[in-house]
Amino acid sequence: MIEYYIRLKRKVLPLWRDRWVWKMAWRDARHNRSRLFLLVASLITGIAAVVAIGSLNHSLQEALDQNAKELLGADIVINSNKPLPVEVTSRLDTLKVPTAADAEMASMVMFMNTKQSRLVKLTALRGDFPFYGQMVTLPPNAYEQVRNGRYAILDETLATQFEVSSDDSLKIGNKMFKVAGVVTKMPGGGGLTSTLAPSVYISLSELDSTGLVQFGSRISYSLFVKTADEKQTEKVVEKIKPMTKKFRYSYETVERRKEGLGRSFRSVYQFFTLLAFVALVLGCIGVASSVHIYAREKREDVAVLRCVGSTGWQAFNIYFIQVFFLGLFGSVAGAGLGAAIQKIIPVVFKNFIPVDLPFSISWTSVLEGLLLGAIVSVLFTVVPLAAVRFVPPLTVLRTESKQVSRRSRLKLIVIILIVLFPVLAATWQTNSLMKGLVFSLGLAAALGLLALVAWALLRLVRRFFPAHAGFIFRHALSNLYRPNNQTQVLMVTIGLGGFIIATMNTVQHSLLGQVEFRGNTNQSNTILFDIQPSQKAGVISLMKDYQLPLNQTVPIVTCRIRELKGRKVEAMMSDTTNRIPDWALGREYRVTYRDSLHISESMLKGEMQHFVKGSKDSVWVTISEGMQETLRVDVGDSLVFDIQGIPLRTKISGIRKVDWPKDPPNFIFVFPSGVLEQAPQIWVTATRVGEGGSASRFQQELVMKFPNVSLVDLRLILSTVESLFAKISVVVRFLALFSIITGLVVLAGAVVNSKFLRIKENVLLRTLGARTRQITQITLIEYAYLGLFAALTGILLSIGASWTLCRFFFEIDLSVAWLALLIVGSAVTLMTMLIGWYNSREVISTPPLQVLRKEG
Amino acid sequence: MAETVLNVENLTKEYASGDRTLTVLDHVTFEIQAGSRQAIIGPSGSGKTTLLGLCAGLDVPSSGTVTLMGFKLNAMNEDDRAYLRNQYTGFVFQNFQLLPTLTAIENVMVPLELRGDKNVQTRARELLGRVGLGDRLHHFPSQLSGGEQQRVAIARAFITAPRILFADEPTGNLDEENAGQVVELLLDLNQQEKTTLVLVTHNLELAKRTDRILRMKGGRVVEEMLMPVS
Prior knowledge:
By secondary structure, chain A is an alpha+beta fold. Chain A is elongated, with a radius of gyration of 35 Å. Chain A starts with 18 loop residues before the first helix and ends with a helix. The longest helix of chain A has 44 residues, at 254-297. Chain A is built from 28 helices and 21 strands. In chain B, the strands form two sheets. Chain B has a six-stranded mixed sheet. In chain B, strands 2-1-4-5 form a four-stranded antiparallel sheet, with helices on one face. Chain B has one domain: 3-Layer(aba) Sandwich (Rossmann fold). Chain B has helices at residues 48-55, 78-88, 104-115, 120-130, 146-158, 176-193, 204-207; strands spanning 4-17, 20-33, 37-41, 63-68, 71-72, 89-92, 164-168, 196-200, 212-217, 220-226. By secondary structure, chain B is α/β, with parallel strands linked by helices. In chain B, 50% of the residues are buried. Classes of the chains: A alpha+beta, B alpha/beta.
């Protein structure tokens, strides 16, 4: 025998020079176009979500930059809870800068057209505020009228709610004001502001005449300053800054407002970005799962190619090129969709944004989306495709020949990168490694738990499914367990969207449950405050006339902390090492005095009072649990209060746990009786007002007789909180929708992926005598199971997540919104059935003979 | 003396089956000369297909050596063996093994394109014409009958003018008429292209048209029959 000793001279071409590989990729893709599109369709929604939110942030920052001065309405605003002292105003006078002012307070207003009354934010204005931007009113001259007479204008929402028109009047305090019009836009105001506190505007010169400004009234004063340029702004700041601590006021410049708003929006934006990112991660799972199935189906083709001389890398490259370019195409489509969604975004987010958002495409976000898409197309396709390299050519002879699992360096590197991807991408989106890590761990935990719940659910159902159930029910169930059916992956991807929405609903329901007033309790639902001591008897008598229960009558004394544990508060606030927040040290406290615990309270530590009559001992007060932690004090620590200028030395006798929403008002500090009785004080009463005309008449008479007394209808707060949640939930649902759509696209891909197998099954069933109706029923029931299990997976986990959030974050009891969960579950099940059936139509309607011919 | 294109020495293939070791090929030794026609016959499970796979470098033996065109396959990695197959061998399979996403002519062109050859279309057209499919160049496999698909596979096998052609039950999936046509085509091309033919078949009539028959049983070559020159 002749032996050849020739070394093989095999040329290895790099991917970009191997024309054959590119040609084969194109030829193969040409035949699988729609199928390949489904491989990356799930990527489109993920990228669209990321680009849409990125563009929103870009537009928002741009709008904030352009409208920064309008947000403040001035160059500087000085805020205080008492009129600014002459020392401050005289300094401003020397600079000759234009100023305007306002005073804001909560007050009852009676709408004379219907004789209804409501607590509103009363804003009394003086001067040319706003210096920047415009207060838009209807009619346009309404604000002018307010400035020149006894006129009032009110927020549009309030006017609509109480059907107020221009000819009507409002009773504010002791005086009647004619309605000059409505405010449709206020600089710096947004949908949320008017939801939480609808405003009525009058002239500052008319405020005193209303008689509302009395002892104990909580009024916020603002002075708006307009400067010629930034230099003058700096000069004004130099003048007012040194006295901020002394006179307890704060100031804000345009830059500080912009920074503050930017910071707030960044936090909100980051939260929304992460929600959008969830959709992208789901898309990645979808891509990886589809490519995995695709690669398995290509095993025989690869074996043929290996037989005729293709290397492992060449075979890999053929499919890699396909999925990579389709990934890019998906990214471009996703970025385009994301940019188009920009049109909808301002509508969805309108209640969160204080400025008009222009429609603009952020090319940075589009590029980011494309880059993310490219990275995803590489990372999440390499691992499932890596198996292609090792398909044994022997498969052409024996399809059952086993593929040896090999360790590939490439695969290992990519797996490491896949683990790092969410961390790095989330870090990039939030500019914080910690947030990136927490998000990634949270998402991994959520996905892991979803997978675990899905796994357990599938096993439990299989174990306990009734054996005597009808054939189509049993067969539909068994379909879920067919090899390569991706049931668990689908349950996770579809379930995650349901999980987000269900969690939001449950947390919302739990929070609302805290402020709900149940009919079978005698809990107060109305608080009357700012009652002057001289009015106390009259108000109580009026309540008795209307047979209203007097649940609480409590005195309130306003005071500040002067010293804490022997240190002056001013010194502590100047000390940079001090860890107690300035707001807690500098704020005004409204305290009460009594000797027993209220029903909403329990003693955590110490005792309620330690006061010994006649002794020279300190006054012993109790403090609420949360504030005790904030002020870093404990039983026995000393506090000196400033009660209307008089120092009062106290010691902490105990710490109370307070269930704040329960039977308000509740207090941070409670003094013992016998100490504050002579201090200037106001009174608050709490009662339970029923529905109907009597309640309305009581309110009317109260406003007429005691115009300065404010009535807080806690039911109104409940509806305000509800409408606030409604606005937030629109956004969360909008973003969760991306995840749900992604999940459904993954489902559509999986259905198409398993089409061939399903056709075979149906042919067999038809051969055995199954009718089209039965096959349709089996298909529908199979997807109903899938949807139901996916929804159950998401809902079960959402209850766990909601409990964790309620228990540890909101510190409230969990209250499950079963009806909302039922709706979420039904919607997910129905959508899954619809998508499953729609993509199976061909499978159901193909006649068996046609299938057999195709097979042959 | 004719050149040896394939040398098999003490070839053994074992598989683990549970706790046991299953010997599918047991110390098989033979050699094949250039231009000859060989048939491997035997009952199911006798090791024919395993032997073909090992000879073509589609699998690696447990022990023993296969030398194809002077190259020891044992010493090569999978990609080198693939290259060798592309350079010297052709394949025809029982179930045709055409790429479903490629047209007939594209399927035929693949081996030459893999080599980086240009203008391969002319050769592919000519070969498809020779197998009687000149008018079905752009049809996909699913649009062709079984016999037509096998003829495309034969054209693909011969496009590189292989030194050795491995055929695994080439008529196994065809009706009698198509099987006859395919056999004639295979043998004609084999003669015209002076290719060495290694044929695994159950069909004794077909085997008798080769130069030598290797009968296998229980993983061993139990009989070697030289056929009279026709």
